[in-house]
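re the bet — no i am not wrong, look at it urself. input seq straight from the record:
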Amino acid sequence: MSTLSISDLHWSPLGHGHCHHQFQLRDVELQVGAGEFVGLIGPNGSGKTSLLRCAYRFNKPERGRVRLGEHDLWQQSSRWCAQRIAVVLQEFPDAFGLNVEEVVAMGRIPHKSLFDGDSHEDRQLVQQALQAVGLQGFDDHTFASLSGGEKQRVILARALVQQPQVLILDEPTNHLDPRYQLELLQQVRRLGIGTLASIHDLNLAAAFCDRLYVLDHGRIVASGTPDQVLTAELLHEVFGVQALIDRHPLADHPRLTWITQR
């Protein structure tokens, strides 16, 4: 398994159809080691999704490098990248009447030539992925008929059958109720795949991430373990809110309680 590394990255939305955005990604340095779960946190509009798009070869940086191991992603083909990096986005794809099994099987496409059918191994991988996300028996359900949370788990299963070296998740718990938020992040951790995820809920980030990067106005302003990063001072400075930080009573990680003014 290879390390995903971003170095000296600059990217601007100007000229990319997003001129209403005020941020530019600047001087970004970030690494995701093999088997490491890394969280990307920051206020809305800070550039998290744009940075993730640079990490999976969608936004081409104006300066800097994005590498997987020793390979510069922008010197590789999109197929090469899709064989090694899987992505779970906030938006759901148009499935055009496909059922769950067919959507998940699409994750095998980067590993096959144009006219290859599904092999026995492909079908096994699909079933294993559906079981991993708790959707065994959903094979014949149409994707469009599923709830938001079920769709999110199908897309995670599709990512798993790519057999990636790196998994990139953009707000993966957005459509999930608390039970499935916890289950999905537990599943991701159990995979042992290097993972970079933008996470809105800072308590989930504290509970599941090995390390965190804080993005504010397009710059990384802090990085480290959840204990190092999630301080009352940083939360007030970056998010503009006051919080009480203590230890979770049942687990060894920080717990945040927001202080509201009545």
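see?? Confidence is low (pLDDT under 50) at residues 17-21. told u. also The chain has two domains: 1-84+165-231, 91-163. so pay up
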